[in-house]
Amino acid sequence: MSIPGEILISLFTAAGVVLGGAMIGSIGSLLAGESPFAGMRHLAGSVRLWAVVVAMGGTFSAIQALESGIYFGRLHILLRQILVIISAFCGAQLGHWLIKEITGGV
Predict the structure, then answer these.
(1) Would you say 56 and 84 are in contact if contact means Cβ atoms under 8 Å apart?
(2) What is the DSSP letter of 47?
């Protein structure tokens, strides 16, 4: 897969995990008699790190790629993984921001 494709998939996967997790998870808040918007805001903040891990494709392969980049001098692999991680963080933040905007929270 090309580097731009990998970056875009990572970005939108992380955003989708945050958006989907917050929206589906807020059903529990609704059934518990609490505000679903407050539940969405709370969940969106809570699942951001998990969204990054999911977008990276699991932790072990990403750590192996970082290791080969650092220890064996494969700079292109190291740079690729760093870009994927940064795009995953940006996607998770985008999802969190969208949930805050949708629910009118701060």
Answers:
(1) yes
(2) S
Residues 6+ apart with CB under 8 A from 49: 92
- Residue written as tokens 């009118």? 104
Is 85 in contact with 52 (CB distance < 8 Å)? yes
Q: What is the pTM assigned to this prediction?
A: 0.84
Please state the domain extents for the chain: 3-103
Using CA atoms, how far apart are residues 80 and 75, in angstroms rounded to an integer? 8
Residue 14: name the closest of 50, 42, 43 by CA.
50
User: pLDDT tens digit string along 24-56?
Assistant: 999 999 999 999 999 999 999 999 999 998 988
Q: Return the biggest CA–CA distance within the chain.
A: 55
Rounded Cα distance between 91 and 6, Å, is: 13
Give the tokens for residue 20.
Answer: 């989907």
Picking from 90, 84, 64, the residue whose alpha carbon sits closest to that of residue 3 is 84
